[in-house]
Amino acid sequence: MTPLRVTFGSASRAMPGEVECGDRLDVMRDGLRSLVILADGVGHGPEAAAAARAAIAAAACDPWAPLGEVLSRCHRKLGSTRGAAVALLRIDAERHEVEHVAVGNVEVCAVAREATRWVAIPGIVGSRLRKQLVTQQRLHPGDLLAVHSDGVSRRLDLGRFSVLDAPSIASRLVEDYGSQHDDAACVVIRC
After folding, report:
1. Please, where are the H alpha helices in the chain?
2. What's the whole-number mean pLDDT along residues 51-72?
């Protein structure tokens, strides 16, 4: 099986009137594996940004550990912050698979060949993490995923931008569907 050619795009912006965005994201890569993390610090402003930065730093300590362990590490690290909603996706381009775990109001939407189901468990990483649900899904060439904070409307129309590259899609999603009352962040994954 030929490895997927996976590209990423990301965009974020602070809530209008704030100087710092409380939604943070990162894509870590190692050959054909990638880890996407999106952290939405509770609230907005510097304290939310500090919580989101702590989640990114915790994930970066060992991004290739099992996803449940990465999330648990984030939970421990965020204990002294106001906490965050966190989504983690690990893409294996060689195996055509994605693993997903999420807590709080972070979402994944997809335009994909196979039906997908993305579940975020209620809670706050760093404060209320009752359980985890790690799921696996197949990926196919042409699949398009968008991971976003609650500052981007869940009514977004990902298919509307399917002809654009991943960075352009991420920018358009934040621009067109971002709330004026919250920080907004999005990572787009194109296979």
Report:
1. 46-61, 67-77, 166-177
2. 97
Residue 165, CA distances (Å) to 10, 40, 172, 189 in order:
11, 24, 11, 10
Domain ranges of the chain: 7-190
Q: Is the pLDDT of residue 172 over 90?
A: yes
Contact 77, 86 (CB under 8 A): no
- Strands (DSSP E) contained in the chain are 7-13, 23-30, 33-41, 84-92, 97-103, 106-111, 135-138, 144-149, 184-190
Question: Is the separation of the CB atoms in 35 and 68 below 8 Å?
Answer: no
Question: What mean pLDDT is predicted for residues 123-132?
Answer: 90
Per CATH, the number for 7-190 is: 3.60.40.10
Contact, 140 vs 96, CB < 8 A? yes
pTM: 0.96
Give me the mean pLDDT over the 142-154 stretch: 97
Tell me the torsion sign for CA atoms 120, 110, 154, 29: positive
Structural contact between residues 137 and 100, judged by C-beta atoms closer than 8 angstroms: yes
DSSP letter (8 states) at residue 15: P
If you average pLDDT over residues 29-54, what whole number do you get?
97
Q: Shortest CA distance to 56 belongs to which of 7, 30, 23, 98?
A: 23
Q: What is the pLDDT of residues 1-20, one digit of tens each?
A: 899 999 999 999 999 999 99
- What integer is the mean pLDDT of 128-154? 94
